[in-house]
């Protein structure tokens, strides 16, 4: 069987609902014409990065959590966008997980540090490859160009870090955040923080 040992990164969950009909349909349409997992992964990444609006950047609701909800409303926070990318990849039988960074908040509101969500995708040629589909803007330029990582953010200030590990499910604090609040402003003010 393809990708033996990565079953937990291929399964459907309530949040990464890769078995949802709309998610499956979108995943298969993105894969059409692609040759191999890397091309499919890039197509899925580019779609989520460019076509799904970052709720904070665009200042829009609703607050989304599940992959199908992000796809339906075409918006999500970084975490939610990573849920959709993971689901699109899993629907194409490409192992995908979630990664997190701890970043310093340079805004005028919210916590001093906050978590940022991104993805890891398994590519046979390279192993786990991290990709960040949060969405580009003037100060953010993320790309999908394995084996080189081109992430939205690189932790470099004191207190910033890449959290260790690749998760098959979102962190409970992320699910709680995106379930508890219904307005993007409340999400911004209550972004979770976590150290290793």
Spell out the key features of this protein.
196 residues, alpha+beta, 4-stranded antiparallel β-sheet, two-stranded parallel sheet, 7 helices, 8 strands, 19% strand
Low-pLDDT stretches:
none
In whole angstroms, how far apart are the ends?
34 Å
Basic shape: globular
Average pLDDT, rounded to a whole number, is 96
Strand order, largest beta sheet: 5-4-3-8
**How much of the polypeptide forms β-strand, as a percent range?**
15-25%
Briefly note the structural class of the backbone. alpha+beta
User: Would you report the number of β strands?
Assistant: 8
Run of helices and strands: HHEHHEHEEEEEEHH
State the helicity in percent bands. 25-40%
Question: What does it look like?
Answer:
β4 and β5 form a beta hairpin. The strands form three sheets. This protein has a four-stranded antiparallel β-sheet with strand order 5-4-3-8. It is of the alpha+beta class. α4 packs across α5. Helix content is 34%, strand content 19%.
């Amino acid at each position: 069987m393809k990708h033996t040992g990565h079953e937990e990164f291929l399964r459907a969950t309530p949040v990464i609902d890769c078995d949802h009909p709309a998610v499956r349909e979108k995943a298969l349409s993105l894969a059409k014409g692609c040759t191999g997992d890397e091309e499919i992964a890039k197509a899925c990444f580019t779609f989520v990065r460019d076509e799904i609006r970052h709720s904070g950047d665009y200042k829009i609701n609703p607050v989304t959590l599940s992959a199908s909800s992000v796809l339906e409303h075409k918006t999500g926070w970084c975490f939610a966008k990573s849920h959709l990318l993971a689901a699109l990849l899993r629907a194409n039988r490409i192992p995908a997980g979630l990664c997190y960074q701890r970043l310093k908040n340079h805004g005028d509101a919210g916590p001093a540090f906050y978590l940022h969500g991104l993805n890891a995708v398994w590519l046979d040629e390279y192993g786990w490859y991290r990709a960040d589909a949060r969405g580009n803007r003037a100060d953010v330029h993320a790309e999908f160009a394995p084996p080189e990582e081109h992430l939205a953010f690189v932790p470099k200030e004191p207190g910033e870090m890449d959290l260790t590990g690749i998760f098959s499910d979102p962190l409970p604090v992320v699910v709680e955040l995106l379930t508890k609040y219904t307005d993007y402003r409340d999400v911004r003010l209550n972004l979770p923080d976590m150290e290793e």
